[in-house]
Amino acid sequence: MKTYKIASIPGDGIGKEVVPAAIRVLREVENIHGGLKFEVSEYPWGSEYYLEHQQMMPEDGLGTLKHFDAIFLGAVGNPDIVPDHISLWELLINIRRSFEQVINIRPARTFAGLSSKLANSEDFDFIVVRENSEGEYSEAGGTIHQGGDKVAIQNAIFSRKGTERAMKFAFELAEQRRNKVTSATKSNGIYHTMPFWDEVFKDVSDNFPEVQTEKEHIDALAASFVTRPERFDVIVASNLFGDILTDIGAAIMGSVGIAPAANINMNGKYPSMFEPVHGSAPDIEGKGMANPIGQIWTAKMMLDHFGETEIADQLLTAIESVIRKGIVTQDIGGKATTTEVTDEIIQQLAEVT
Amino acid sequence: MKTYKIASIPGDGIGKEVVPAAIRVLREVENIHGGLKFEVSEYPWGSEYYLEHQQMMPEDGLGTLKHFDAIFLGAVGNPDIVPDHISLWELLINIRRSFEQVINIRPARTFAGLSSKLANSEDFDFIVVRENSEGEYSEAGGTIHQGGDKVAIQNAIFSRKGTERAMKFAFELAEQRRNKVTSATKSNGIYHTMPFWDEVFKDVSDNFPEVQTEKEHIDALAASFVTRPERFDVIVASNLFGDILTDIGAAIMGSVGIAPAANINMNGKYPSMFEPVHGSAPDIEGKGMANPIGQIWTAKMMLDHFGETEIADQLLTAIESVIRKGIVTQDIGGKATTTEVTDEIIQQLAEVT
Ligand SMILES: CC(C)[C@H](C(=O)O)[C@@H](O)C(=O)O
Ligand SMILES: CC(C)[C@H](C(=O)O)[C@@H](O)C(=O)O
């Protein structure tokens, strides 16, 4: 019996609906696969927790999470309750940084039966490798003066080590795929860090002579996601550019509600975290409208990370078949509720295995 | 006779094809409208000029440009010849900053006969007001260490004055349109400058109680441009976010080749600059494939800026009718060359007036 210890943090908004849905799917995985067990501990941390405790998670929250095999997170943020920069830096970004989850992997692809938001688009299938530990997301900076003279300064900080690491990861991934890496840059406008980014990309690419490379400025690249997504295989991007590109990737798939993500710790010292691309969407909370596919596909990435690739593939097949049958939520053209989609995925999973 | 003195800078790549095309249209405007004259002086500045002179424009380039009523620019950048951060900061960004062109206005809308890149999208019609003088585009920063330890630091700098000015402009524009302003933020990830951005947005919006407001994080907003562009009226964005959003806006319209832009000097001390959203696209230079509509629509914005709104509207009507007839370049589904599209716009202009 292989047991995986999972810390689940539903978080805010629809996180509280889609995480339980995905856990139900994991229970079915246990049913099917006699040799697997998921020990799930749920932590009610998030904006409501903040209201009571003036912090997003307990003082020893990281100490608690540290011992798990993985963290399974829904979504964080509810600006009506806690300012976003506080809620995110205390919880989501805090975990990413403290647990050295330096890479964020985010796939996007077409599915049979799911019309892309794009007109007449060809099939596409790409993965964005997002640098997840530094760059534009930084606490360095501050404000000077007050009132009409106030000036805010933000430092973006790119290290050779962090940049190289993300790029190397992207190239190795491309080698297992279609051998192409696109670098998201903006060296024409962002004067210091982006020419540096280009320089590292050039150096890393020299070690992968078989991999085709290209660089594109983020503005043109964002447009290319809309006009010709089929031309991408692996895209490597900074923290901010990766964030933006993956929401566009999710949108062209059909909805931000279906895109999965994995925050990967690469040195084995801390757990990785699995968290879909979409946000907490407090406006649709409690209506049963939330698309659970993003969170369930994210669970699939967690299974892959555990090395349980066979059942992970079966789970993806189940998702594909439910999408093909059109038993989906409103955001992607269906009428089903969160629970109905989840039930159907569970049933399909039982059938494909 | 009203005479406007225009400095034309075709720049690099397809800039050298679309600027002459748009100037031909301006000549037709003169023909039609007996009382108007455009005195155009062309300056061959750009990456090829750099090869010869080790600079993108002459020492006294700004002094030369200063006396014109407007600058009409194609596109700058050819990374095979000059690194992008040099070519852009010495020419395009240099002009924007030195001439205090603090606002960049960039409309996007659907056209009859032009299918959007989006499936089943409703008609949309929005304008992005891009802060054009500060923010993420900054020379402040640098690198420390060398080799494997190298670290690059980029300062984004937002002043109260610059931020307020862009927002006020957006609200005043919205008052003439559909009374809605969306703020592009990222205060959940960008720790210092974006909460500041939100704070200024809140303050400015208090002065426009009739205008409906919303703020959306840049990732979700970029996705919304793809999934529900019809819900936007005016969007106000920082320099970088505005840059990214307007390429997406251009892409959903059908092609980056048709989107126009205006870099506005607001204090009357220096000329404004008119330059389309698209880049220099050196890969398609000289093939007659470049879409001239972006540059010609940009000329329309220049006419508006001169206060020649009647002929400006007629020019837009001519563009609309050419698009409706499908006499367009390949990027938007036609077979016509740059010259054929331009000829057709000139002919339509003669007909509508
Ligand atoms: C060429 C580049 C520096 C420029 C920018 O980023 O401002 C361009 O993309 C634009 O949008 O005008
Ligand atoms: C919530 C926010 C801080 C976060 C990010 O920007 O990283 C989210 O958008 C994501 O993509 O995981």
Automatic annotation (TrEMBL), chains A, B:
Main EC class the enzyme belongs to: oxidoreductase
Domain called Isopropylmalate dehydrogenase-like: residue spans: 5-345
SMART domains: Iso_dh
Keywords, alphabetical: Manganese, Metal-binding, NAD, Oxidoreductase
Cofactor list: Mg(2+); Mn(2+)
GO molecular function (one): D-malate dehydrogenase (decarboxylating) (NAD+) activity
EC number(s) on file: 1.1.1.83
Catalytic activity: (R)-malate + NAD(+) = pyruvate + CO2 + NADH
Highest taxon, organism lineage: Bacteria
Record Pfam families: Iso_dh
Family, similarity comment: Belongs to the isocitrate and isopropylmalate dehydrogenases family.
Protein name listed in UniProt: D-malate dehydrogenase (decarboxylating)
